[in-house]
Amino acid sequence: MNLRQQNLARLQGQDLDVLIVGGGINGSVSAAALAARGARVGLIDARDFAGFTSQQSSNLVWGGIKYMEGYEFGLVNGLCRSRNELLDSFPSTVKEIRFLLTINRQFRFHPWIILASTWLYWLFGRGKTRTPRLLSPAGIRELEPVIDAAISTAGVEYSDAFLHDNDARFVFNFVRSAMDSGCAAVNYVEAVDFSRGDQGHWITQARDSVDGSQFSIRSRVLINAAGAFVDRLNTAADIETVHRHLFSKGIHLIVPRLSRGHRVLAFFADDERLFFAIPMANRTCIGTTDKLVDDPLTTVDPGDRDFVLSNINARLDLAQPLSEQDIIAERCGVRPLAIRRDDASLGDFRKLSRKHIVETCASQQHISIFGGKLTDCINVGDEICAEVGKLGVELQPPCRWFGEPAATDRRAYFERAAKLGLDRQAAQDTGETLDVRLWRRYGGQASTMLDAIEADPAMAEPLIENTGFRRCEIDYIAHNEMIVYLEDYLRRRSKIELLMARDQLRNSTGLREACEVLFGDQAPQKFTEYFNHT
Q1: What is the DSSP letter of 470?
Q2: Contact 234, 221 (CB under 8 A)
Q3: pLDDT of res. 28
Q4: Taking the model in full, what pTM does it have?
Q5: How confident is the model over 427-435, as a mean pLDDT?
Q6: Number of Cβ within a 10 Å radius of residue 311
Q7: 153, 101 Cβ separation under 8 angstroms
Q8: How many C-beta atoms surround the C-beta of residue 450 within 10 A?
Q9: Which domains are present in the chain?
Q10: Are 99 and 161 contacting, i.e. CB atoms less than 8 angstroms apart?
Q11: In whole angstroms, what is the distance from residue 42 CA to residue 32 CA?
Q12: Beta strand pairing status for 152-163 and 94-104?
């Protein structure tokens, strides 16, 4: 019985304190926080963990500098505090990165105003990052020759943070943490109906999308963390809320690396929103768009591609303008924006913030999480614990439920890795050494991979060409990360799908070998299924 089957059996075999529906960033941190404090927690998602909005972000962990224009200084102050906490708690994963904001001649604000704003932003950030500075067009050209400085009046360089790996991987590590604390987490389990039992428990009828079986899950408290689908699930559970969601569609295009420098290139797009070219291993992620849509299920359309390509081409001095042929991969998702149901005066939806709102219906033992962004995830976990405690679930005293392992564990890991020579093996996609890479991606679980390499040095060899992934990683993932479909591995447990063109993936002998490790006899079927579906 594999890990997923074990957790399915646990969901059906016990009365839970809390069932969380939705395995994105909000649901995963809620599960990790509650499980760490002793609650009996179940976590389900109709897709894979981080399979919707939480896999479509810009990978930025930022304090919301754009919200300063709307004078939301309290929100910016809180987000900067949250960003700093992530920088301190996940030093291998969340890292400071410099932003170079180029200001066009026709922009409505003088460069000195922008510079003053970044200094205020730095102060909100408690001086955690490097200080801002003003650059002339010549200074921009010297720092980043790829930028067309001829159309600018000045540039401002400042700091924020980003995820060294991908967003979905970051989310899954919270799921992993929750499971380590006893949570029964299962992907591809859909909640199809909700009712209240005789003793006031929630009875959630669930369907396993893998084999089609149906079963019920009992819990004292039900948490709706379904992200963009929160409103739909509340309707199904007959829950009335004060808040609801608007959906803003955003896309990113992944293209070959545009700059040799490791910084985010920021511009004001034609619609005067911030627009980025973000380093992603040996590629560049460019975007984003902002379009109000009615349905969270969206796709990239020609207008989206044209907006991104035309904006970046107009701001960079490229030997050849980027075209659709340069697109390696695309990201498309919606931002669930929390608003009050009775708010009829929304104004410009693009100025709405990504703040989260936790709404509790005490009489129904039900909690909904609206909005939110990755930067503020720790606050979500703490707030959910407070609300669940108010609903009568006895929790252990507050504890530190997030962050990398203790310094002593880290030191022991790196000493052991050095003895195996992993500090001398560089990954092809990022240049970082193998010991650093494994720790960043797996934390305390990386010691399991050292065991495998110690037993068989070949486990440290590259597996999938030009990605940096090693054989020991795929073996660990196969047994511990609930891979149901090949996309789960290529898109969410890693970011390989975003870095390699489809023809390269299809012809990769290493990917076929990885598929055999992941799926055994089903490998040919899973391989074909992936390339026929995506």
Answers
A1: B
A2: no
A3: 98
A4: 0.96
A5: 75
A6: 21
A7: no
A8: 20
A9: 3-54+167-242+351-390 (3.50.50.60), 92-164+246-343 (3.30.9.10), 407-533 (1.10.8)
A10: no
A11: 11
A12: antiparallel
Bridge pairing between strands 366-371 and 356-361: antiparallel
Residue 21: what are its φ and ψ, rounded to 5°?
-105, 115
**Tokens 């299809």 — which residue?**
506
pLDDT tens digit sequence for 399-420: 999 999 999 999 999 999 999 9
Average pLDDT of 195-200?
Answer: 86
What is the CA angle 270-275-279, rounded to 5? 150
| DSSP per residue, 266-316 | EEE-TTSSEEEEEEETTEEEEE---EEES-S-----HHHHHHHHHHHHHHB
Smallest Cα–Cα separation from 18: which of 45, 46, 35, 42? Answer: 42
Does the pLDDT of residue 307 top 70, yes or no?
yes
> Nearest CA to 90 among 443, 447, 380, 433?
443
Buried b (16+ CB within 10 A) or exposed e, 160-199: bbbbbbbbbbbbbbbbbbbbebebbbbbbbebeebeeeee
Band of residue 70 on the pLDDT scale cut at 50, 70, 90: confident
Question: What single-letter DSSP state applies at residue 131?
Answer: P
Distance spanning both ends of the chain, measured CA to CA: 29
